[in-house]
């Protein structure tokens, strides 16, 4: 079993690093993965809550304030 912070890192920033080390050609040659910096590629989920106190806030549609996938915003209640 992993603690919450380890599980979140495995699903986010660590996945970007793993993807870059895989045998597949990274599809985003001009941008970075797994980082929130200018020029990076990212899907974003902004929540009203602290997932370190309980990951249920991540799946709760009431606490999901912004959902962005492939550069398209699907929900924005900020």
Tell me the number of strands.
3
Stretches with pLDDT under 50, minimum 5 residues = none
Oligomer: single chain
Percent helix, as a range, is 25-40%
Q: Quickly count the helices.
A: 3
Rough outline: flat
Strand content: 15-25%
Structural class: alpha+beta
Rg on CA atoms, Å: 14 Å
Mean pLDDT: 80
Largest beta-sheet characterization: 3 strands, antiparallel
Distance between the termini: 34 Å
Side by side, the strands of the main sheet go 1-2-3
Compressed to H and E, one letter per element, the order equals: HHEHEE
Query: In total, how many domains does the architecture comprise?
Result: 1
Organism: Vibrio splendidus
Protein name: Amidohydrolase-related domain-containing protein
GO molecular function, one term: hydrolase activity, acting on carbon-nitrogen (but not peptide) bonds
Report on the structure:
The chain is of the alpha+beta class. It has one domain. The protein is 27% helix and 19% strand. The chain has three helices and three strands; from the N terminus they run ααβαββ. It has a three-stranded antiparallel β-sheet with strand order 1-2-3. Strand 2 and strand 3 form a beta hairpin. The termini are far apart. The mean pLDDT is 80.
